[in-house]
Amino acid sequence: INGSSIVFPIVFALCIANTGVNAELVNAGKAPTAIINLQMFRYVLIGGAGNTLGLVLLMCKSKSKHIRSIGRLSVLPGICGINEPIIFGTPIVLNPILSIPFLIMPCLSAGLGYLVQSMGLVSLGYIVDPSFTQGFLSALDIRNVIFMFVLIAISVVVYYPFFKVYEKNTLEHEGE
Q1: How high is the mean pLDDT in each 10-residue block of the chain (176 residues)?
Q2: How far is Cα 104 from Cα 19, in angstroms, rounded to an integer?
Q3: End-to-end Cα distance, the chain
């Protein structure tokens, strides 16, 4: 059973309802107020569950041929929020090394997303958009896109030490 599939309907329902509330406020000429909106959901899922886009970027530059090939094959799906190639190809499933940042990054992204929205550093989401251009289209604000790139950079930093341990172990097995 995929954990995010269990939580997804509950969180998504709350986020999409609040995005609708924000849209109604904007249509009435008022400022959006619901911080927990669909945009927050997007911050938590950059590259898919676990914010794995940073890991994908690290994998693309790996010394291990196996890891590098999975990383390169996962770039486009990762940009679209699909990370099954990483989850099962790396694998993150039952991997004690990569599970740690996989669990940390969504919490960190959600916390930072809440903080920057509450401080007004990015606009609150009020548009429901199904595309991978969500950062801009959620509030028609380029600051949201910049913040998403900041989250990707943070993801690279968080995954880096764990990735290096995983890469070292993989290179040892390839050497055998």
Answers
A1: 72 86 92 86 82 93 92 90 87 88 91 92 81 70 88 96 94 81
A2: 25
A3: 34
Cβ pair 80, 134 in contact under 8 A: no
Cβ–Cβ < 8 Å for 45, 147:
no
C-alpha–C-alpha distance, residues 71 and 101, integer Å: 17
Cα–Cα dist 13/21, whole Å? 12
Q: What is the pLDDT of residue 40?
A: 80
Query: Which residue bears the tokens 């764990």?
Result: 162
What is the reported pTM?
0.85
| Pairwise CA distance, residues 146 & 139, whole Å | 13
Distance between CA atoms of 137 and 122, rounded to whole angstroms?
A: 13
The predicted pLDDT at position 79 comes to: 86
CA distances to 33, 99, 132 from 93, rounded to whole Å, are 38, 7, 25
Give the CA distances from residue 69 to residues 43, 74, 83, 119, 169, in Å, rounded to whole numbers and listed in that order: 26, 9, 14, 40, 17
Identity (one letter) of the amino acid at 14?
Answer: L
